[in-house]
Every structure is written in structure tokens, then in C-alpha cells.
Design a protein that fits this description.
The protein is mainly alpha-helical. The chain has two domains: 3-127, Winged helix-like DNA-binding domain superfamily/Winged helix DNA-binding domain (Arc Repressor Mutant, subunit A, Orthogonal Bundle), CATH 1.10.10; 129-158. It is 70% helix and 6% strand. It is built from seven helices and two strands, in the order H-H-H-H-E-E-H-H-H. It has helices spanning 3-34, 42-53, 59-66, 70-82, 104-125, 132-147, 150-156; strands spanning 86-90, 98-102. It has a two-stranded antiparallel ribbon with strand order 1-2. A hairpin with a 7-residue loop joins strand 1 and strand 2. The chain is globular and about 60 Å long.
């Protein structure tokens, strides 16, 4: 394969990623929302997901992620703390800074939505021709390190 052919393949691959990944993510988000507890708002659920992916996040970081103001986010977090889904912790070195962590109940809530979403995605993928999922798994395993942020890659090494 020539360099020019390789570059063309890379551009085609990039175009397909840009077209397909948003569709996949839209489906994942919709399924996660569908499997959230009915008494949790979408914003509350998004806050739980953010804190799960970013343990020790600050209130301001959650506000930025959800698109809410800090005072509104603070009230939302108060409700999640009252429901024992999130725990607030003061930093020893800066007692004015509060960090947020999921409680075991918060983790279980997200885990249930995650598992139901994964089951739904598996059902959708079952419609693919035999062997296709194996190829997708192989491609995704190849892509994962390319798109893993450097800091995560460094921490995952033994």
C-alpha cells in the first residue's frame, strides 16, 4: 500500500468515525436515560454520571458539565446527597473546597442503567451478520489506545 492510499484510508476511516460515533452515542445516551430511575431528572442523572467518571469533582465542574449555574447545581447536589446517591467531602488542605463522590447506592443506580443499556445494545447488535461483532470488537480494541487520554494511559500501566 502506498502512502497516498494509506492517507486516503485514514481519511475514509475518520469520516466514518465522525458519521457513526455520534449515532452510537445518541443511542447510548437515550438508553441510559430510559433506564434511569423515574424519580431522577435527566440533569441529576447526568450529574451522577459525571461524578462517576470524575471522582472528587467539584461543584463548579458538575455545573459546567450540566450547563447549570453553581447555585442551581448546589441545590441539585443537595437533593442527591439527601437521597444518599452522592457524598460531599471536604478537602483536608482546603476546607472551603468540597469534592463529590458517588455513594454505593449511587454506584448501584448507575450500574443498573449501564447493565440495561448494555443488554439493549447487545440486542441491537444481534441483527448484524455473523462474525461482524468480532470484527467490531477487534476494531474497537485497536481504537481504544488511540483515543485514551495520555494521563489515563499512564495510570493504567502496571
Amino acid at each position: 500500500m502506498t502512502v497516498l492510499e494509506s492517507q486516503k484510508d485514514n481519511l475514509t476511516c475518520a469520516a466514518l468515525l465522525m458519521d457513526t460515533v455520534p449515532l452510537v452515542m445518541r443511542t447510548i445516551r437515550a438508553e441510559m436515560r430510559n433506564h434511569r430511575p423515574s424519580d431522577l431528572s435527566v440533569q441529576q442523572f447526568r450529574a451522577l454520571l459525571f461524578v462517576h467518571r470524575n471522582p472528587g469533582a467539584s461543584l463548579a465542574q458538575v455545573a459546567e458539565h450540566t450547563g447549570l449555574t453553581v447555585p442551581t447545581t448546589s441545590k441539585m447536589i443537595d437533593r442527591l446527597v439527601a437521597r444518599q446517591l452522592i457524598d460531599r467531602q471536604l478537602l483536608a488542605r482546603n476546607r472551603r473546597r468540597v469534592t463529590l463522590m458517588l455513594t454505593p447506592l449511587g454506584e448501584a443506580t448507575l450500574s443498573a442503567a449501564h447493565d440495561a443499556t448494555q443488554t439493549r445494545l447487545a440486542a441491537l447488535l444481534a441483527a448484524l451478520p455473523p462474525g461482524t461483532c468480532g470484527m467490531i470488537v477487534q476494531a474497537l480494541r485497536a481504537l481504544h489506545p488511540v483515543f485514551t487520554p495520555r494521563s489515563e494511559a499512564d495510570h493504567s500501566r502496571p
